[in-house]
Amino acid sequence: MPTQAQEVYDVTGAGDTVIGVLAATLAAGNSLEEACFFANAAAGVVVGKLGTSTVSPIELENAVRGRADTGFGVMTEEELKLAVAAARKRGEKVVMTNGVFDILHAGHVSYLANARKLGDRLIVAVNSDASTKRLKGDSRPVNPLEQRMIVLGALEAVDWVVSFEEDTPQRLIAGILPDLLVKGGDYKPEEIAGSKEVWANGGEVLVLNFEDGCSTTNIIKKIQQDKKG
Predict the structure, then answer these.
(1) What angle do CA 171, 176, 181 make, to 5 degrees?
(2) Predicted structure pTM score
(3) Which domains occur in the chain, in start order?
(4) Which of 127, 201, 119, 195 is nearest to 157 (CA)?
(5) What residues are annotated to the active site?
(6) pLDDT-derived band of residue 58, with 50, 70 and 90 as boundaries?
(7) CA atoms of 72 and 68, how far apart (whole Å)
């Protein structure tokens, strides 16, 4: 179970908080893993207060959402699965997309904003540096994975950012099974990685148009031309 560093002011009552939240969430039908996640988040709230303190439902919700968005929304696959499970319990529609997102431009931002409007939560899966190099060539990526993920996570439209090492996110998508899988460009839905798994689970697959004139490749070419000029 991953933990997050917290500013600790007083540990009084933290153990009781863990036990109480653990018992309550288990009684509500959550799994042990989910219960530990909520209990850990609640204890993080309590140790940030002086004296024996309680955690309110709003504080717990904010802590859980904040934990899901640690590092501007950047998380591991395991953390993402927990966040998605919690979102589904709240009745939220989960949208997922993927890409390299090497040099973020207006076309990317517009596309992600439109994707986010289609649901309640947006997951962006990002190609690792090795995956990007295999896909785009030895000169890419321009920006390393960690930086690409932080920039994406800072966007208001994006809830969660996760990386994948493979050439396609098919395995990752099959593990998450979003309610809606979105891809930009001129793909046919059946050509999109993970589409078969999403359809088999009762989900939807949708292709959105990219904004004309916006391209990472074009940006790189312009920079190279300006250097020569």
Answers:
(1) 90
(2) 0.69
(3) 14-68 (no CATH), 77-228 (3.40.50.620)
(4) 119
(5) 16
(6) low
(7) 9
